[in-house]
Amino acid sequence: MTWIEQGRAVRPSAATFARLADALELGPAERAYLFTLAARHDPADPFGPSGPAAPPAIAAVVAALPYPAYGLDPAWDVVVANSAARRLFVGLFDDRNPGVPNLLRYVFTDPSARALLPDHEARCERVLAEFRRDYGRGIHDPRVRGVVDWSIANSPLFARLWARQGVLAREGGLRQFDHPTDGALYFVQHVLADVDRGDFRLIALIPAN
Fold it and tell me: Is the Cα dihedral 129, 130, 133, 138 positive or negative?
């Protein structure tokens, strides 16, 4: 790690750093420090904080909209969200979920999502089919692969649906939510891709009632 701390040009892959961390038997704090110095994402921690930031255009639009809006990176981490989205997606931004909020982890494993989303399994199936469409762009990203591996291991529903290999273009349309405070809410979902980073998505939910 000394060479990295001195700023020398060290460019091994994330997998190489992972093997080094394992060989040195680094503790969690030391391992996180190693990957931070190397500007790499630890493949053992798919929800770690070292993913790319939201493109400026997506961040600006999300901040400007009065309705729920958020941005997704290739691993479907929620890299930016406005206050309306944070209110709508109960539990997604809670401290009990370590690391960066991730839409797949939330939808498939968080009890709050099961309560929020009517016809939960059908919504999961649609979400995963949309993610698989994006998965082809990020298949070589260890974070993306890590999210998939974690989800297969932690959600039987994800594992079953993933095995079906369904693909669906991310479509807009009516979305219903059963919010614990605001009751039944209906939105029309709109999805846009960033011009410079086509693997990022902007999702806006415009009230339908």
Answer: negative
